[in-house]
Design a protein that fits this description.
Layout (H helix, E strand, L loop, with lengths): L1 H11 L9 E9 L2 E3 L2 E7 L2 E9 L2 E10 L2 E10 L2 E11 L5 E8 L3 E9 L1
Antiparallel strand pairs: 1-2, 1-3, 1-9, 3-4, 4-5, 5-6, 6-7, 7-8, 8-9
């Protein structure tokens, strides 16, 4: 009976939540175009803040949220006079990387990414 009670308690406990705080090197593509920012994320509760940079001259503020094991963050990037919003939606993998999708608005384009913590 003790074994059954312990098994019930262990299965009822939620899995430890991932902490997405840190510097992440993103390697992705959107319609065959490379998307490779370095993102410094800070998680406070379920809120994500920080910056993403393609280079020293293009550093943009990040907003986002954590939903269970999923992390979603976005930032705006100007390119040739148009402001694009890049939204990253990822989940942790067993190798401690993140894998997910990238959506780019208003271009209505999407792609995939992998991010590794530096």
């Amino acid at each position: 009976m003790k074994t059954l009670a312990l098994l019930f308690l262990l299965t009822a406990m939620p899995a430890a939540a991932a902490d997405f705080t840190g510097t992440w090197k993103v390697d992705g593509t959107v319609e065959d175009n490379p998307v490779t920012p370095t993102c410094k994320l800070k998680q406070t509760g379920t809120t994500i803040t920080g910056t993403c940079a393609f280079d020293a001259d293009h550093v943009d503020d990040v907003t986002g949220e954590v939903k269970g094991a999923e992390v979603i963050w976005k930032f705006k990037q100007e390119y040739q006079g148009t402001v694009y919003t890049l939204t990253f939606d990822g989940k942790p993998e067993s190798d401690a990387s993140l894998k997910g999708t990238i959506a780019v608005d208003p271009a209505d384009a999407d792609g995939d990414f992998t991010a590794k913590k530096l």
